[in-house]
């Protein structure tokens, strides 16, 4: 019975389109060209690898997760929370790479439980020409700001105050020198994991997309804790960071030549193309063998 | 060599070790190839080495139960929020819920990723249940109880009475039905027929248990002996606390996402407390066994093959976690590497390298000759 179910599932699978490292059909490389979409910056920091900047030209409302996916990035959540906690971006940190996490010898990220506070993807956001701000909201709980930036920066052995900002200035080319006019986001007011950021500056008549969220949505800012701590006090508006100088940007690409994630996972796990066929044949052979052995034993007993 | 393959029943504990090894291996993976392989291996061994006893015929029930588990898991993903993932395959109308039920979603979009997640998860649980079913089919529960430590003597007596009730009930139902047919009673309404079967069967069961209780009482079963109430309380508390500790510890050891301090420390202290309880209880119970089962080479082969499967899975899961837990980021066929696959195949060894079970129809002397 379960075999039949499995076969049905695989039929569904087989018709799915092949996946690529970066889904080039979604978004486009580089910064967004105007104030409608959202630019997503992924900075691998100490993991190594060239920073990727891509644009999600989505004009409707969407969460931080929508921004990341809509820009074409391949992400993986943790088994415990699902996609509410981003564990891997572009298969980094992969399950085979050892992270030099302090106090955790030979640590490898399995994406089962919340990653340790010393090695996780920190989530940032910024308006155009504003400074990067560490998100106080979970990736599914806040909306990206149109024309703004979403930043993902791998934080390795950093404290709450020393999380590294993405090393790309949140300034769209051609708008340098303009002022920061993004509204400051209100911090969460409760410990409710499902609290949504209030909608700002939208016409009341605008159609609001139905949110389809998972029940458990921890904030990326609070790794390794089952219960969510109360929101931290945030700097006031006057203390908001100013935009870094775009001249200090690190080298970046649009991720055009990144390796296919599926291929990379297959190579890293040492999987063989023939093993699934052998497994399927083995299951069938054992099933047939059980049938014949059972019949033979029954006859032997009857005689 | 011929002596090795002489038909006989193996020690039931060996079968339990083998089946628990397979199910521990199943807990380490959600790869459908490996899980199906484990089910196929367990099924083959059961068919090749089971007896005609009523408990051995129940393996089919465990297979049905496994199928039900898989269906329920997939169905729940369908009903309660299956939108994790981007490949939407089914659009159902979402049922709006009041604000206090926030976080619960009824119906709505269903993605292939979440359905597959439910399928893999359910398949894992089903595989574990089927492995336990295999142990039940292969191991004789009466002889397993015989091999229990003396501390569990009273519990064992109760369990064996309970175990023998079900076959007796079935036999009783058959007898009453045959009697009804012979009398040629009106085969009218089904409800009335049920009525006419249930009451005699229940009456039969009641009188049988009263008879059993009287006979056991006259033979001295259930005598507490000269033990202080305080000592009994102490041993009981030690055993219960120890067993709870063992349960929590085993859970934490097998589940990678529980805090580590719940794993080895709680497991080892639970085992210690339970052993102390067993020791205390065993001191006041003196039992001898008639012809105890011994561990011979075939038993060791069976146990080693089960432990081998679990060990290979533990070793490979630290090397390549990705094909033990297929990623659902992008829909693709689950990948598989050779080492865990060959490891699971170790479990099929008992189907070949063990003696056939002793046939109940052949007298023991004839087999020995």
UniProtKB/TrEMBL annotation, chain A:
<keyword id="KW-0472">Membrane</keyword>
<keyword id="KW-0812">Transmembrane</keyword>
<feature type="compositionally biased region" description="Low complexity">
    <location>
        <begin position="235"/>
        <end position="247"/>
    </location>
</feature>
<keyword id="KW-0732">Signal</keyword>
<feature type="region of interest" description="Disordered">
    <location>
        <begin position="157"/>
        <end position="258"/>
    </location>
</feature>
<feature type="compositionally biased region" description="Low complexity">
    <location>
        <begin position="197"/>
        <end position="210"/>
    </location>
</feature>
<feature type="signal peptide">
    <location>
        <begin position="1"/>
        <end position="21"/>
    </location>
</feature>
<keyword id="KW-1133">Transmembrane helix</keyword>
<feature type="transmembrane region" description="Helical">
    <location>
        <begin position="274"/>
        <end position="293"/>
    </location>
</feature>
<protein>
    <submittedName>
        <fullName>ABC transporter substrate-binding protein</fullName>
    </submittedName>
</protein>
TrEMBL record, chain B:
<protein>
    <submittedName>
        <fullName>Energy-coupling factor transporter transmembrane protein EcfT</fullName>
    </submittedName>
</protein>
<dbReference type="Pfam" id="PF02361">
    <property type="entry name" value="CbiQ"/>
</dbReference>
<keyword id="KW-1133">Transmembrane helix</keyword>
<feature type="transmembrane region" description="Helical">
    <location>
        <begin position="260"/>
        <end position="280"/>
    </location>
</feature>
<feature type="transmembrane region" description="Helical">
    <location>
        <begin position="331"/>
        <end position="353"/>
    </location>
</feature>
<keyword id="KW-0812">Transmembrane</keyword>
<feature type="transmembrane region" description="Helical">
    <location>
        <begin position="61"/>
        <end position="80"/>
    </location>
</feature>
<keyword id="KW-0472">Membrane</keyword>
<dbReference type="InterPro" id="IPR003339">
    <property type="entry name" value="ABC/ECF_trnsptr_transmembrane"/>
</dbReference>
<dbReference type="GO" id="GO:0005886">
    <property type="term" value="C:plasma membrane"/>
</dbReference>
<feature type="transmembrane region" description="Helical">
    <location>
        <begin position="300"/>
        <end position="319"/>
    </location>
</feature>
<feature type="transmembrane region" description="Helical">
    <location>
        <begin position="231"/>
        <end position="254"/>
    </location>
</feature>
<feature type="transmembrane region" description="Helical">
    <location>
        <begin position="151"/>
        <end position="170"/>
    </location>
</feature>
<feature type="transmembrane region" description="Helical">
    <location>
        <begin position="32"/>
        <end position="49"/>
    </location>
</feature>
């Amino acid at each position: 019975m379960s075999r039949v179910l499995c076969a049905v599932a695989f039929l569904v699978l087989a018709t799915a389109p092949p996946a690529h490292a970066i889904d080039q059909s979604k978004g486009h490389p580089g910064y967004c060209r105007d104030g409608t979409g959202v630019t997503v910056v992924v900075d691998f920091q100490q993991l190594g690898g060239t920073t990727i900047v891509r644009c999600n030209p989505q004009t409707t409302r969407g969460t931080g997760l929508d921004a990341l996916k809509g820009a074409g990035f391949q992400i993986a959540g943790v088994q415990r929370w699902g996609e509410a906690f981003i564990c891997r971006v572009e298969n980094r940190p992969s399950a085979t790479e050892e992270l030099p996490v302090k106090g955790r010898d030979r640590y490898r990220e399995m994406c089962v439980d919340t990653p340790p506070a010393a090695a996780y993807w920190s989530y940032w956001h910024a308006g155009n020409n504003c400074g990067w701000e560490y998100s106080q909201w979970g990736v599914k709980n806040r909306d990206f700001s149109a024309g703004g930036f979403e930043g993902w920066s791998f934080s390795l052995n950093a404290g709450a105050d020393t999380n590294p900002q993405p090393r790309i200035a949140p300034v769209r080319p051609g708008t340098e020198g303009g002022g920061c006019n993004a509204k400051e986001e209100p911090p969460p007011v409760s410990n409710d994991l499902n609290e949504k950021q209030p909608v700002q500056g939208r016409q009341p008549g605008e159609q609001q997309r139905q949110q389809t969220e998972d029940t458990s949505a921890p904030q990326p800012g609070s790794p390794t804790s089952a219960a969510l701590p109360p929101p931290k006090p945030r700097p006031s508006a006057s203390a908001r960071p100013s935009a870094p100088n775009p001249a200090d940007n690190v080298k970046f690409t649009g991720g055009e030549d990144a390796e296919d994630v599926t291929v990379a996972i297959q190579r890293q796990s040492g999987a063989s193309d023939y093993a699934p066929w052998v497994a399927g044949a083995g299951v069938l052979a054992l099933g047939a063998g059980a049938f014949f052995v059972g019949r033979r034993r029954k006859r032997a007993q009857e005689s | 060599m011929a002596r090795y393959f002489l038909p006989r029943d193996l020690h039931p504990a060996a079968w339990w070790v083998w089946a628990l090894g397979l199910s521990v291996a199943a807990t380490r993976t959600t790869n459908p190839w490996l899980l199906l392989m484990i089910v196929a291996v367990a099924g083959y061994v059961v068919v090749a080495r089971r007896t005609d006893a009523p408990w051995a015929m129940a393996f089919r029930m465990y297979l049905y139960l496994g199928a039900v588990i898989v269906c329920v898991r997939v169905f729940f993903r369908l009903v309660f929020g299956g939108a994790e993932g981007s490949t939407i395959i089914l659009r159902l109308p979402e049922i709006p819920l009041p604000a206090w039920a926030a976080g619960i979603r009824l119906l709505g979009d269903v993605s292939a990723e979440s359905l597959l997640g439910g399928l893999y998860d359910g398949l894992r649980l089903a595989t574990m249940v089927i492995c336990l079913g295999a142990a039940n089919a292969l191991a004789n529960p009466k002889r397993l109880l015989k091999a229990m430590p003396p501390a569990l003597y009273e519990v064992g007596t109760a369990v064996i009475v309970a175990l023998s009730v079900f076959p007796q009930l079935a036999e009783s139902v058959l007898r009453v039905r045959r009697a009804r047919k012979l009398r040629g009673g009106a085969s009218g309404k089904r409800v009335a027929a049920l009525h006419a079967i249930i009451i005699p069967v229940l009456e039969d069961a009641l009188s049988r248990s009263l008879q059993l209780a009287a006979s056991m009482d006259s033979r001295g079963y259930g005598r507490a002996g000269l033990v202080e109430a305080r000592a009994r309380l102490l041993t009981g508390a030690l055993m219960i606390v120890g067993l709870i500790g063992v349960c929590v510890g085993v859970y934490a050891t097998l589940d990678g996402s529980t805090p580590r301090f719940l794993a080895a420390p709680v497991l080892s202290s639970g085992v210690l407390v339970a052993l102390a309880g067993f020791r205390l209880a065993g001191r006041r119970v003196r039992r001898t066994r008639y012809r105890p089962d011994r561990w011979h080479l075939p038993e060791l082969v069976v146990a080693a093959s089960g432990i081998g499967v679990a060990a290979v899975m533990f070793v490979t899961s630290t090397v390549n976690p990705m094909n033990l837990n297929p990623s659902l980021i992008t829909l693709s066929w689950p990948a598989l590497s050779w080492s865990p696959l060959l490891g699971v195949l170790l479990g099929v060894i008992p189907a070949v390298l063990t003696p056939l079970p002793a046939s109940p129809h052949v007298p023991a002397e004839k087999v020995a000759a």
